[in-house]
Amino acid sequence: MIEIFVHSVFQDNLALTFFLGICTFLAVSKRVDTALGLGLAMIVVQTLTVPINHLIFQGLLIEGAWAWAGLPEADLSFLKLMSFIGVIAAVVQILEMVLDRFVPALARSLGIYLPLITVNCAILGGSLFMVERRYSLPESLVWGLGSGTGWALAILTFAAIRERLRYADAPEGLRGLGLAFITTGLIAMAFGGFALVELP
Amino acid sequence: MSLSDTPLPRISRPWDAHRVTLALCLALVLPLLAAGLSRGAALLPPLLLALALTLAWQAVFARLRQRAMSWDGIESALVFALLVPAGVPLWQQGLALSFGLVMGALIFGARGRGFLSPAVVGLSFLLITFPGIGPLDLGGPVALAALPAGAGLIWLGLLSWRVVAGFGLGAALLALLLAGPAALAQGLTSPALMLGLVFLIGDPVAGASTRLGRWTYGLLGGALAALFALSAEATLGTMPLQAMVSAALLASIFAPLLDQLAIWQNLRHRNRRHKHG
User: Fold this and answer.
1) pTM of this prediction?
2) Contact status of B21 with chain A (Cβ, < 8 Å)
3) Short-list B40, B39, B83, B30, CA closest to B190
4) By the 8 A CB rule, do A113 and A29 touch?
5) Which residues of A touch B128 (CB under 8 A)?
6) In sequence order, what are the residues at sequence separation of 6 or more whose Cβ sits closer than 8 angstroms to the Cβ of residue B234?
């Protein structure tokens, strides 16, 4: 369990190792406080959607899920992409309404980032990895929490570095996105250092 | 309180890039001499290669970008040559140092405009790209030579004592927690640990710059170095170079965020004071 968590935060970091959700990663990382909002939203949504998708996949889609109804050959797993996206959109929608009703301050500070997360490929990627690696329900909860945390950590460090790089004096052609891509590469190289750690 | 009551700030010649480079190079003299004693003439080719490459890259960038020639890469070159284990082919050293210089420093502009130490980036590149590089073959005397160098740099204000203290605390705590007191032994005579602390983690450009940030940066670097060393079945005394370099790179990556957290913390304190006072 601890291993899944540490791996999902560092070695298997969705943004830095699999380059998932890079569009949002590059676009919403100019300031640390907005990156913090997005990162928090990401952790919450990822922790909710991966276990829910796990339940749906195991209960409805996987081959043999309908055996109790006399349909042992039914294999609906081709529907997983569609249903996962549906679940993600629904969870984000519900979360937005719940936050707006009970914690309006948080809802305001998350603002646009909550709906934005629906289209973040790291979220869908997290659920697809859960299927591919055959995680159990508790494992997918930990994986959801860990991969969300890893993505949030990545965007936070990246945003802080970008704020510092305002003082950089880069060559003309590298300013802006060019430098952002190189910085992402350097951060990914550093996170790879965790490959050294062998957990007991 | 009138203006004359306030103590005048002690004004000395301001630090510029040249003076910082000069001070750091002077601090490197003693460790380099000690390394020369233990390695002999074998130290010379890497040293000359590193210096030549650095000057060449800086000249290329100065010329292409029409900036003044800067000399600060000399210090990175010396640190890199000092920390490369013997027996690494020169072309690998040259490739790695070039990567470190260009990607870690030159494309961000001059010294202090990037966020990483070129020596750290170069060494990481070397250790990741060419696995199986042997351990750092410098003896205890080289590690001890880092002591006066570090003390001098702290006195000059180029090395933060908070970073050093945080590093010691973080490394000791983690080693004690994970492996007991035996893992702590002889940390002071490990060349990778001592040189890495003074010249890689302690690099003023790559570290945090707020007070609280420096503490947390040092703590993080020390904890990571100890964690990496212990998971490679080493102790603080036999700190592998790879562990130290990875820890330095990761700590530098997190330094701007740690600074930001420190600033938020200070703001919260100040707001609370204003509310009460």
Assistant:
1) 0.90
2) no
3) B83
4) no
5) 189, 192
6) B240, B243
Sequence-ordered strand ranges (E) for A110-156: none
B206, B230, B229: which is closest to B218 by C-alpha? B206
Cα A2 from Cα A126, distance rounded (Å): 17
Domain ranges of chain A: 2-195
- Tens-digit pLDDT profile for residues B48-91: 999 999 999 999 999 988 888 888 889 999 999 999 998 899 99
ipTM over 0.95 threshold: no
Which letter does DSSP use for residue B198 in this model? I
Nearest by Cα to B123 from B85, B168, B86:
B85
Task: Map tokens 């004690």 to a residue.
Answer: B176
Q: Tell me: the pLDDT tens digits for A174-197?
A: 888 889 999 999 999 998 877 766
DSSP conformation letters of A42-94: HHHHHHHHHHHHHHHIIIIISTTTTGGGT-TT---GGGHHHHHHHHHHHHHHH
A167 contacts B113? CB cut-off 8 A: yes
> Could you give the CA distance from residue A21 to residue B124 in angstroms, rounded to a whole number?
26
CB contact under 8 A, B253 and A196: no
